[in-house]
Amino acid sequence: MGSGPGSIATVGMIPQAYTFLQDVSELHLMYTCENCGYRAPKWLGKCPGCESFQTFVEDAEKVETSSSNSPFNMPLQVLSEVTIDSENRLTCGISELDRVLGGGLVPGSTILVGGDPGIGKSTLMLQTLAQLQKQGFKTLYVSGEESVRQIKMRSVRLKSDMLPILVLTETYQKRIRSIVDEHRPDVVVIDSIQTMYAEGNNSAPGSLSQVRDVASRFVSLSKQTGTPVFLVGHVTKEGAIAGPRVLEHMVDTVLYFEGDRGHALRILRAVKNRFGSTNEIGVFEMKDSGLAEVSNPSQLFLAERPLNVPGSVVVPCMGGTRPILLELQALVTPSPLGVPRRVTIGVDTARVSLLVAVLERKAGMQLTGQDLFLNVAGGVKADEPALDLGLAGAIASSCLERPISPDTVMLGEIGLSGEIRAVSQMDLRLREAEKMGFRRCFLPASNGSRAGKTKGLKLIGVDTLSEALKYWFE
């Protein structure tokens, strides 16, 4: 028998099976890079987009046979004729969160919040909705991981169980959209995006195509209704938000909630923000009653600082527009290995290797054959060049077994020739150091001539690293 359209095999086929074959024919197997979202029709060992290896996974997508409607369905407009109202943000009632967001929630924005399991993402979202509800806003909390009873138990612990927050346990995007259209909440939280699924997508929840599809629909919901939407996301073992990298490009703001579950300190950091700065950080402390804001981070970070101990240095760092005093700790010890170790927590390892080379070459310190361990106390990640002088001071202090005076702070960028370069926002840093009771500050000589007057803080300008070493241990 033939196998054409008029054959017995085709005529005798049951309608359900024929429909299934039609659906399969509309599925195109693509391969997507988990790291950057690059797509290819076949598997590749190396991604042409980000040059990563072994990152392509199968991603079946359904090809629409007819033209689909635009998710926004907005008319064509002339830019010069577009009018904008004054910016009207919703203040969350949590000042640290408002600071990171750039002043509050922008109507129609989509915010992606990522963090390690158990770090406090759901707690932060529920506290945010509670504060918004107290201001008279209508809020909706959608959970795809917890039951309503579990959410109730958390709200009792946070003392927000008496607030009329709308709660829904659902993973089907279409039903969530119908609930939003029916009740018209002012703010929506989706916890988490990896548990949601959309119609017309045969992939499992959490897969690349499913996360991308669901996220695009929630972004469309936010833009169409003007409702701010929080999307809670899981992170991978490398610390990046799970799912396609295009997910971070689709949303307006990406926040990372960082911290060690063994410690109470939590840091909220913006890595992308279309409506504000990405340099701001929010500091929280995890307590039995939930997350508490830390209004004076410097005092918290320096609360347990040891005095007159080699390898400990305080540096005024900038957390966006807010100065924060951080303690840098270094430990230099003889290495039993052929290649000495360079272990850093909170600072860039490559930057530390550069400083070690400058200390050896320009300051005459013998660090070859020495293991080096560096840590930023409190679990904070700091990467600005102003930390260079403090890092060098901590390394030199530990290597020489000579402590630096505990009433001293230092900051400055170090060049490859050992020169100390100027840093920005010096006046803010100096005022914070003076407020915390410090008496001496080593800074670049060029900054010292331009810095404002300080009452109780003695400014010592240095031009080179060798000059700074003489002052530190005189």
Helix content: 25-40%
How does the overall form come out from the CA principal axes? Answer: globular
What structural class do helix, strand and pairing data support?
alpha/beta
Q: Strand count, sense and closure of the main sheet? A: 9 strands, mixed
Radius of gyration: 28 Å
Beta content comes to 15-25%
* Low-confidence regions: 1-25, 63-69
- The count of helical stretches stands at 14
What is the CATH homologous superfamily assignment of the largest domain?
P-loop containing nucleotide triphosphate hydrolases
Main β-sheet, spatial strand arrangement? 6-5-7-8-4-9-10-11-12
Q: Into how many domains do the coordinates divide?
A: 3
pLDDT averaged residue by residue: 86
Which fold name is given in CATH as the topology of the largest domain? Rossmann fold
> What is the terminal-to-terminal distance?
100 Å
CATH 2nd-level architecture of the largest domain: 3-Layer(aba) Sandwich
The count of β-strands is 21
CATH C-level name of the largest domain:
Alpha Beta
What characteristics describe this protein?
474 residues; alpha/beta; Rossmann fold; Ribosomal Protein S5, domain 2; 3 domains; nine-stranded mixed beta sheet; four-stranded mixed beta sheet; 14 helices; 29% helix; disordered N terminus
Note down, in words, how this protein is organized.
With about 475 residues, the protein is α/β, with parallel strands linked by helices. The chain contains 14 helices and 21 strands. Helix 10 packs across helix 11 (about 390-400). Mean pLDDT is about 85; it is low at about 1-25 and about 65-70.
